[in-house]
Amino acid sequence: MSIETTSNEQDIRLRAGIDRSLRHPVMFFLTSGAAWLAVSLILGIIASAKMHAPGFMDGCSWFTYGRIQAAHVNALVYGWAFQAAFGVIIWLMSRLSRQECKASGTILMAGHLWNLVVSFGIIGIMAGFGTGIPWMEFPVFVWPALLFCYVAIVIWSMIQFKVRPEGHVYISQWYLMAALIWFPWVYLTTNLLIHVFPGNPVMANAINAWFKSSLIFLFFTPVALATAFYLVPKVTGRPIISYSLAKLGFWSLAILMPWAGTQKLFGAPIPVFIPYLGAAATILFFIPAFTAAVNLLRTASADMEIVNNSPTLRFTMAGVFGLIVMAVASVFLNIPDVTLELTQFTISGYGFEILALYGFFSFVMFGAIYFIVPRITLREWLSRRLIKMHFFFSIYGIVTIALVAIFGGVMQGQGQEDFLQPNTELPTYVYPYAWATTISWCFILFSNIFFFLHLTFMWLRLGRRSTHPTLLVSHHAGSPHGEEGDIDNVGTASAH
Amino acid sequence: MSFRIFILGLFASFGVAWLSIIIVPYFKMRSLDPIPMGEDANGTSVVFNPKRAGRIKDGYEVYMSNGCNQCHTQLIRPTYAGTDVHRPGWAGFVYDDERGNTSRETTVFDYAHEKFASIGVTRIGPDLSNFAVRVREIYAKGQSAENWLYSFLYNPRHDPKRRNSTCPSNRFLFEERKIKGNPADDAIPFASKEGYELVPKPEARALVSYLLSLKKDQAVPASINFAPAKKEEAETK
Asked: In terms of pTM, does the model score above 0.90?
């Protein structure tokens, strides 16, 4: 990774102080997030296996398909994705606002509470107390607790932004502030209008569809983009190619994406403009996605060697490719009268969510984790082989899931359209794709077990004491990681 | 761009969409006027209002909390959005000459009294809009619809014709108990031991009540009937 150009001793001390102040909350969020990811993947494998082998773990109420699929998705969203986002948000905001975190105790406590509540939620779903509302299956008591934890975790980042030293506001801060403001707004609206003041049941479906899409497009996407816009210039040591392109990308996301999501209600008894607007907005996701992706790719492509060698950049750029695929999929899957109604009730909905959550968001988060963790633990990653395993098996898995989501969904939809076939044929349209999904989840689980172990070693401060970052190629014939050095002095530790 | 303008921009860009596709439609749809259906024999006016109370409501909770909606939809889309209407037994039936084909699209009133319309996520299994009629008229013809459903829920693949089904077995909704006196009417023939019987738990009874209430092919008032009988058809009746 690059050497920061500034040699100002004060700056270095400030960064080291920020990293030290956030060590415990950030490591807690990342490690427990990775553990939840592993849990979610195991649940996902079981759920997916039941699609082609219904006898698998059959007849047990806790593991019946409807419950375990819900538990899998909720563990992925609230257990892994949100916690990874929290870890990265609080660190990025402190670094970008140039202030130490003064509330790490509160954040850590709220983080523990978040984990406790998510555990209750998952157990509640599996015990049969779920609501059955997609992405909101947690028993109803969970949502106020999660919202409370959310506020207790991120309010400090918002304060840091408000009282930041005068000067330039970086692109990443726009995205972070937007995500931090939009998420509670979306979450509160949705839960109030579905659980507290129930209105029309069909409208509740529309609100729920909008909620899922808003979580993806207005929380996970901006957080991942903020991270990528921080990491790419930082590691390559080059400024972002175009500032006005970044501006266009940000404001097009802000203006277009709040309209997206309701196309799931296509053909339902609801005012027709709602699904059509949702489809139009989701298709237009390619504007914010491509502008951001082009900006990041052109910045990084100036030095392909760094992209290839740095674990951070390799994961981040894979995430940016995931963003491009996601944008193509949101165009391809949502064209009314062509593919929208065809894929409306197929596995492509789930596949798209996984593509967004894993193929784009998680890859960027992995990139960030490979960058942040050595800085806050003052240790380097143990093994580049583990990192490579993590990367390649994740890539194999997610590419398969993306292909299955896009093409399998269309094929399944074609089968469903053939109304002369008997009902008993319906499950067979999904067999081959369910097999592919199970296998790719196994690959992803395999890769993430290594990741979790590696991260846990780092958390236990068992990392390498070295001034040389762990790169994916070896430069020195003598030692695989180059010359060892002492990093326990402030200056060198934070110069990376 | 000052901080104030930036935050204002965030609120405005999000708020406009939030108001237009969530808040205003929510309040507009919150209190839909009931649709009059004409008068009954006593001269009181009737509105379209499917029954959904008591055990049917409990069954809806069981349906949702077990995630049946992950694989089963309950939505007959108009022809511009799919071929649902044409699939035999999904949108309606031909009961007799007088009513003709009852196939119709789902209306907003079909989900009345549900907290969250069970439109569903995917269609791994068949659509259940008119499942009750399919069970009564086709699957369980000549026997008790409840018992057919209990057997189906216990083991969806017990019928060789349904070996492709990936519906999970809901064995946990049943209990095996010793026969005391006469065997129960709703016992299913899968008991493992002699002298014991398999009977549905209350959740299974509620779920079956709900499933046997799934009927969305009633005649609807002309104002929400999107496929009214053609003129010549109406004249020949």
From this structure: yes
